Amino acid sequence: MNSLINDFLKFLNNITPIPESELQKLKNISNIKKIKQGDYFLRQGDKSYEIAFICKGLFRITYLTEDGKEFTKSFFDEQSFLVSYSALLENRESYFSIEALEDSTIVVVDYNEWKAFFENEISWNKLLVVILQKAFCNKETREREFLIYDAKTRYLSFIQTYPKLSKRLKQHVIASYLGITPEALSTIKKRLKLNLD
Known about the structure:
2 domains; 4-stranded antiparallel β-sheet
């Protein structure tokens, strides 16, 4: 288990150099957690004070409407972070759920404990900026696709963005991400196959 936390620290240090003493402090507040397929790291409507790093597994962010309709916002696999950041900042309930799509292993850190490190070491702030910049770019791309792309183009973009995930995901989950029905996704895939043949 220690090796997983060390891999997590190494990943962070590759993003931006962090003093060894600071990494050790983070290691002291890091814990390993296993989440079974179908279980949740966070449920919509709950508060969370944790941020997690995926060592192994696959997760998705979902929104559930009042009438029970589910939408998939994004996917996260190995070496990705799990957090409802706006909920953390505003000390409120999360607007979305984070569900494990596979049996997964994550490193979990209490964000408030970690945040205390930021006051005395600038490298933590640099790290956070890089992580948030990437998240912002992904969010902007996702919004653009929904505003200007049709379903077929969104599917092709999904295949390009997540080339290794399409085989790990069930069709109804991919359809939920694309904002279409599983039947519509099946039709798109058949038409694309005909065009390739």
